[in-house]
Amino acid sequence: MKDEDERWQLLVAVDSIPNAGLGFAYRRGGATEAGILVRTASGVLAFRNVCRHLHVRLDRTDPGRFLTADGRWLVCGEHGARYRPEDGLCVAGPCLGAALRQLPVRVSGGNVFLDSEALEDPFSTSQVPS
Ligand code: FES
Prior knowledge:
This protein is mainly β. The protein has one domain (4-119): Rieske [2Fe-2S] iron-sulphur domain (Rieske Iron-sulfur Protein, 3-layer Sandwich), CATH 2.102.10. It contains 2 helices and 10 strands. The protein has helices spanning 4-7, 116-119; strands at 8-13, 22-28, 31-40, 43-48, 74-75, 82-83, 90-92, 102-103, 105-108, 111-115. Strand 5 (74-75) and strand 6 (82-83) form a beta hairpin. The two termini are 19 Å apart. Residues 51, 53-54, 56, 76, 78-79, 81, 93-94 line the site of FE2/S2 (inorganic) cluster (FES). FE2/S2 (inorganic) cluster binds at residues 51, 53-54, 56, 76, 78-79, 81, 93-94.
């Protein structure tokens, strides 16, 4: 088990997350991976920035663009898959019914932290800690 400082990766201040979402990098094992932070009615959520269709970043064709113009859906620029920000479920497009992988984050002291310990199990369902 890691100590608490090693376990929780500081990502960003909540106030720095724009309504259009924010891409971020995080460490998983020895690799750097890409994630997306979004504000929802139930709080800040994070997802891996990997489309469930072809395993590319959602914003590969338009870096930094994660949401549709109306802000309602996370969108993949490749073929237009739309995902619900509330749970990552694909509601339209070639990966209909699949879901973005949620990342385990918590908000504390106005900052967003990622649970590195929960990331270590690639088969984890990424439960978000309370
Ligand atoms: S790669 Fe994302 S919709 Fe096809």
